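All the exercises in this workshop are built on plain-text protein records. A record pairs a protein's sequence with a compact description of its fold. Read left to right, the C-alpha cells trace the chain's path through space. Once this layout is familiar, the rest of the handout is easier to follow. Here is such a record, shown just as it appears in the course material:
>
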Amino acid sequence: MASNNDHADDTKAPCPRLLSPFKIGPDLELPNRVIMAPMTRGRADPKTLTATDLMAEYYEQRASAGLIITEGVHTSVIGRGWHRVPELYTKRHAESWRAVTDRVHAAGGRIFCQLEHCGRHSHSSFRDGESGYEGDMKKGVAPSPIPRSSGSNKQHYTNLPEGTADIEVPRALTTQEVESIPDEYRNCAQLAKEAGFDGVEIHSSNGFLLDTFLQSSTNKRTDDYGGSKENRFRLIEKVLVACCDVFPSHRVGIRLSPNGAYNSMGSVDNHDAFLFYAQRIAEMNIGYLHLTNGIGPPHKEGPTLELDEIRAIYPGTIIVNSDYDAESAERVIVSGNADAVSFGRLFISNPDLPDRFATKGAELNDMAERPWWSTFENQLGSKGYTDYTRLAEPNV
C-alpha cells in the first residue's frame, strides 16, 4: 500500500512532492517519485539477445530515479516482437542481466524488470531458424485471429534485412497454450529474482498479448478466457499470481492502458471493464498499478476512463505516465490521484532527471530525436543512448 509522505518541505525544491520519498509495501523505499518508464531501446546482443555492458551503463546512469522499470523484456521465443529486444527466459539471459542490476544497485538505485509478451505485435521472422517453429507456428499469437492495423499495414523492426514486412494474421492460442502462459511468466520472474532485480512489472498495455485478452475488440474467445470481463481477466490474474509466487506481492506491478489506441486498440466497453480490472487488481494487493494513455491520442471507441475514477476504487499505489513534465507531475501527485509519475523521453536525454527537477533554474537537455529512441538502423552504439550529459558535465 502507498505511504502518504505528506509533509515535504515546499521551500527545498520546485516540485517538493514529486521529489519526496515514497514507500511501496513494507520495505521498498524510493528516494523520490520520479520513475523511469519502460522504453524499448533495442541494444541487446544481436546473436544471443542477452543484456550488454552498454545496457548496464545506460541503466546505471539513471540510477537516481525513484525506481527504474526496464524496457519490455521478451518472455519466450513466441513472445518476441521487436528487433534486438533483450530476453529473460534462460539462465544465460539471467546471468547477463546480473551485470545490469549490480551496477544499478552499486549506484544506489532500484530496478524492476518489465516482462513482455508481444502477442500479435510480432512477425514470423522472429522465429526464423528456431526449432519447433514452422509454418503457422512461426506466427505471432493472440486470443483470436484478429490482426492489428496500421497506417502502412507494415510490421516494423522485424528480423528481416529490410526491417519491415506485411502485418500477419496472428494464430489463436489453444486453451492449453493459454493455460501454460502463467508458468512462462513464473519462470521469467524466478530468473529476474536470480538476476538481482528488485521486482517485476507485467506489461499488459499498448496492444501486447495480455492487453488483447482484456479487451473485447481483440478477444472473441468462447472458452474460459473470453466473453465476459471476468473471463477476459482470468489470464492476467493467473499471471499476477504466478509472479507473486516468486516475489512478495508488493514487488510485482502491472501496466495498463485503458484509453490507449496504439496497435489499433480500444473497445466500446473499456471504461467499465477496466474499472472492474482495477478493482480486482486492488484485491490482490500488488505493489502498484501503472497507468498510461498509450502512444498517441486515446481511442474513440467509448468514454475515456478518468484517473479520478480509478483512484476512487483503487487505494494502492498508482503510477501514471503520459507526457508529464515536472509541474504537471507535481499537480497530479498533490491531487491525490497518483503517487508517482513515470517519465520516458525525458529520461532518455536527461540521465540525471531527478537532480534537474531538484535544481532551481536547471535546464533539461533537448528531447531525444525519434531516430535515436530505438530504430532498425541505430541499434549498435552509444549515440543517443549513453552520451547525454549530466548537470555537472559540459555539453558536447
